[in-house]
Design brief:
The structure is a homodimer of 337-residue chains. Chain A is an alpha/beta fold and 337 residues long. Chain A has 13 helices and 12 strands. Chain A has 3 domains: 44 residues, lambda repressor-like DNA-binding domains (434 Repressor (Amino-terminal Domain), Orthogonal Bundle); 127 residues, 3-Layer(aba) Sandwich (Rossmann fold); 133 residues, 3-Layer(aba) Sandwich (Rossmann fold). In chain A, helix 5 links the parallel strand 1 and strand 2. In chain A, helix 8 packs parallel to helix 9. Chain A is elongated, with a radius of gyration of 26 Å. At the A-B interface, helix 4, helix 5, strand 2, helix 6 and helix 11 of A face helix 4, helix 5, strand 2, helix 6 and helix 11 of B. The structure holds a DNA duplex (16 and 16 nucleotides).
Chain lengths: 337, 337
DNA sequence: TTGTAGGCGTTATCAA
DNA sequence: TTGATAACGCCTACAA
């Protein structure tokens, strides 16, 4: 058990060089010795040692994926896309849950660096200067998913949040809604928060509709609980709205659950549209109309970009990808027309 | 960038042995040289190479986690517990989505073996003989979560499915329900399927209630869609039931959604209890009463067991853990009393 | 307290 | 077609 190339060589009566050649199917050995060696490998149950290989080849066939939170289905659908594509190409992925904690993130980056991963994918995380420093020192490809850095030139794969939020709001307006609240998630988040609010505003403008700032609810996160609180607030303030645009499916779900408790019928009395199209959206009752991000595909694309960069040796740059979003119509939006 | 211990040694005017000693804080160097070396490390931005270390120490500080499917929130809550504990102890985790595919699983096992991971955790997966062979050849600790092997002596952390299903059914009966259907998931699954049916039966027996086999619906999976189909079947067969016990939260959610479409009020006209207590349960509307598995903790415990085994060198055995389950009462069960 | 040298399991460059 | 042998970056006796 755990025999080495040396054992194989001895057993097959050849040199380790020959074994190595056969293992990596290079040229330079006869069919006869190949058979001998293969049999020895078989009999010993020999498995090449990836550590030794990596040490000399300077490549580990593994990548690291940083993920901020677990609470949301969201990250894991992306992760699953990454994992799929990586595995198909013979790479393993190390998951790193940063828990939105800077120290933990830096620690993880350090670990990935020591383990000499071949690349790093960062899921919806803001890139701090300290991260970027470590990242550049590592000199491996990095790509962002569902995130973007304005400070640093890191390629990304994401939907256009502003545009997607515009689409969602526009959709509601075209259904006849004019009094639309927005449950905005974290409004100070420059990546997933602000642009969506802009999109919400822009849609109003494009239809010549005014925007009432009171209608924009700031929760500091994108969670179910935050959605509940936001809905409470809307009710308490007695905002006169016929529809809600929520910045995430979880927020929408939270809002729906308090609406249900208060006896507000969705979509009869109140329409709601979410954002993400996680599995949750289709499991909610009624099922949630939402603007879909192609989460799984984003993972695939990010991985594709990463390996592209690795191939070309272009560690610094590649073409970022704006992924298509679309409205998935289900049961939570009623037409007023 | 990517300097070696040699560079550090040269820069600090000492031998690599000394640097190594300081790095691993062993004994045998003066404070003065320590400072010199530390500065050199700092200036060079030196990072130890985990590959080289692993090669010589025969340990990689990484473990592998096999997960069957992504569709369910379930696995990821467990994963997240594992990841947390592993990271706290300085280990990384490689995620392996086996997609319930034997070939893929074997391939992954091979990869983990070549990468010389220090241990493997397998989440709710049936252990085939081929897996076990590779596993034993690897000679590293293995633990099962939310699974068990009757054929092979692998320690596990799981709830007692039979008991948990008993509790769920018993709970319904004590609320006055006597006509209870079971949406059983995969009934030919000896781990998560059968025992739960037994529990369902046992609860009936213990109350002197008869079991109608027609009331046990076999779907072949534990997914949302399967839950919908099962509910359709219940309705179509016009089963005369007042409550349903579903073998997973997703199944319950699926059932609830078709009930909603058919205008059946939950819990007024029909009670339902789920199984797992994933995040989904609390987000459903109405929120789902369910029997909780401590998913996150199961991950933690599994990791704990794994590292225990590694410490003691007892690769073959450790005490398995039966995790406590409990009923989480929410809004989907109505008392008939 | 410090340094030399051998070895961990590979691959790759020479000669043969 | 083959086989020594020097790396890869580190740890660890053993000497000094």
């Amino acid at each position: 058990m755990n025999s080495t190339i040396k054992d194989v060589a001895r057993k097959a009566n050849v040199s380790i060089a020959t074994v190595s050649r056969i293992l990596n199917n290079k040229t330079g050995f006869s069919e006869k010795t190949k058979i001998k060696v293969l049999r020895a490998i078989e009999e010993l149950g020999y498995q090449p040692n990836a550590l030794a290989r990596g040490l000399i080849n300077k490549n580990t066939q593994t990548i690291g994926v940083l993920i901020p939170t677990v609470s949301n289905m969201f990250s894991y659908e992306i992760l699953s896309g990454i994992e799929k594509h990586a595995n198909d190409l013979g790479y393993s992925v190390i998951v790193c849950n940063t828990a939105d904690d800077g120290e933990r993130t830096i620690n993880y980056l350090q670990v990935l660096s020591e383990k000499r991963v071949d690349g790093i994918i960062i899921v919806s995380e803001f890139i701090r200067e300290e991260y970027y420093k470590i990242l550049t020192d590592m000199n491996v490809p990095v790509v962002l998913v569902s995130s973007i850095s304005f400070q640093f030139p890191i390629p990304y794969a994401k939907v256009d949040d502003r545009h997607a939020a515009f689409s969602a709001t526009d959709y509601l307006i075209k259904k006849g809604h004019t009094k639309i609240a927005m449950i905005a998630g974290n409004t100070s988040d420059p990546i997933a928060g602000l642009p969506r609010i802009e999109g919400y505003r822009a849609a109003h403008h494009s239809h010549g509709l005014p925007v009432n700032d009171d209608f924009i609810i700031d929760c500091r996160t994108f969670t179910h609980t935050a959605g509940m609180e936001a809905m409470e607030e809307i009710l308490q303030k007695k905002l006169d709205v016929t529809a809600i645009f929520a910045s995430s499916d979880e927020l929408a779900a939270g809002a729906m659950s308090v609406a249900y408790r208060k006896g507000i019928k969705i979509p009869d009395q109140l329409s709601i549209i979410g954002y993400d199209n996680t599995k949750l959206a289709e499991m909610l009752i009624p099922s949630l109309t939402t603007v879909a991000q192609p989460l799984y595909d984003m993972g695939i694309v990010a991985a594709t970009m990463l390996f592209e960069m690795k191939e070309t040796g272009e560690v610094t740059q590649t073409q970022s990808r704006i992924m298509n979003h679309c409205i998935v119509e289900r049961e939570t939006v009623r037409s007023l027309l």
